[in-house]
Amino acid sequence: MITIKEVEHVAKLARLALNEEEKVKFAEQLGNILDYFNQLKEINTENVEPMAQAVPKINVMREDKVWPPCDREEILANAPKEEDGYFRVPRIIEE
After folding, report:
1. Which of 6-15, 17-26, 63-72 comes out lowest in average pLDDT?
2. Residue 2: its pLDDT value, please?
3. What class does CATH assign to 4-41?
4. Which residues of 30-94 form beta strands (DSSP E)?
5. Are 3 and 27 in contact (CB under 8 A)?
6. Could you report how far apart the first and last alpha carbons of the chain are, in Å?
7. Is the pLDDT confidence value at 95 over 80?
8. Can you give the pTM of this predicted structure?
9. How far is 35 from 5, CA to CA, in rounded Å?
10. Rounded CA gap, 24 and 4, in Å?
C-alpha cells in the first residue's frame, strides 16, 4: 500500500499540485499497480529464455539525405515565447 505521504513526495518531485481527493485516488491506483507487479513475480518463468523485448527488433536503414536548413523565423513563429532568436521556456529548476 502506498501512503499519502509517499504520494505527496512523488507529486513534489514531479511538481504536481494535488488536492486531498487526488492524493487518495493516486495512493489507491499506485497501490493497485504495485499489487499487479507482485502478481507478475509469481509467474513461473523457469523455461522462458531471457529477452530484452518481446518482438524482434529490425533495423531499417535508409540513405542519408541532405536537406536545406529550416528558416529560423518560421520555426520561432510557432514558439509561445522567443528571445534573441531562441525558444524561451519557463524556469523549472530553482537556484
Report:
1. 63-72
2. 92
3. mainly alpha
4. 82-83, 86-87
5. yes
6. 35
7. no
8. 0.51
9. 19
10. 7
d(CA 50, CA 63): 34
Q: Residue 27: its pLDDT value, please? A: 97
Domain residue spans in the chain?
4-41
Collapsed DSSP state (helix, strand, coil) of residue 65: coil
Q: How far apart (Å, rounded) are the C-alpha atoms in residues 44 and 58? A: 29
Length of the chain: 95
Please tell me the number of Cα atoms within 13 Å of 63 on its side-chain side: 3
pLDDT at 60: 81
In single-letter form, the type of residue at position 45 comes to T
User: What would the pLDDT profile of 25-46 be if each residue is shown by its tens digit?
Assistant: 999 999 999 999 999 999 999 9
Compute the radius of gyration of the chain from its Cα atoms: 23
- In sequence order, which ranges of 1-95 are alpha helices (DSSP H)? 4-13, 20-41, 72-76
How far apart CA 15 and CA 52 sit, in angstroms, is 32
Confirm if 7 and 26 have CB atoms less than 8 A apart: yes
